[in-house]
Amino acid sequence: MKKVNWGIIGLGAIAKQFAKGFENLNNSNLLAIASKNKEKLNDFKKNLNISDDYCFNNYETLLKNKEIDIVYIALPTSFHKEWIIKCLDSEKKVLVEKPATMNEEEIEEIKKRYTKEKIFIKEAFMYMYHPQILKVIELINQGEIGELVSMESNFGINVLTKRNIFGFKKIKKLNKKNRIFSKELGGGVILDIGCYPVSLSSLVASQISKIDYNKIKVTNIEKYMRPNEVEIDASMELIYENNFKSRISASFTKKLGSKTIILGKKGEIHIENTWLNPSTIKVKNDQNKIINFESSASIFSHEIDALSKCILDDKLKPNFPDLTINDIIGNMKIIDKWKN
Fold it and tell me: What is the b/e burial string over 28-54, where b = at least 16 CB atoms within 10 angstroms of the residue's CB?
């Protein structure tokens, strides 16, 4: 069977997780990797048995390789725009780690640059390709909870608070060398994890009617920021043109978990673990049901498999989910309003 050859540029923690997704897939192959960090390059090469011929210490050399079909950009957000453009100019398809760019302006610039070309660019929201999200959308469209009204979606992990010897909570000093706390690299809780519930909110709202991103109201914004640093807690409410509402919270100091509740006029859908494996969907209506999703496979496998099928079928988009470049722009518009 023909396989899609993938390359990765940037070999940080997320790239390690992504690379595990190639296990047991028969339509894709992690062919090449590139990093300016020799230690990371050698570590990847050793653990993934990648040939020396496909291990590069600069990104440009990887892009010149004609065997590579698609490049996964796993660099910090501040580098995304530059390398999306370089990948597309090298006639490579692109999967870019979320968020696609630092702001709406950058992704708009990319769209305008390739107006007359058929480009393949996808934002790496791996959770969207998981069977549970497909099932949620199916349940909504089957009318299991009736007409959609609202949702609440959280993503919160405590990476910053600790208890002192007296038992009181204390916020740790931020390590500005860490990507998620660096303004320059695109850190902060909104860009890093707040983008997840934003993307899901728009996906759910679009099941009611087509979204006009210019008419979405971003209200009840709350942010907690350290002086001259990035935001570490944030929440807001979205009101879509079709009157669907979504309450979103993201945190680096609170264990909010990753639960989503979607409310309809006839019931509710609860996604217990929205962003990762394994998970459970609870449908609460006149016939309550629980749907479990358990898999030993990496959550990234679903994403790699779907996009590889798309490429092998010579399509510019998978059947579902299809986040177009206009959707990426629209969601970045929301994020900009939340941040600014």
Answer: bebbbbbbeeeebbeebbeebebeeeb
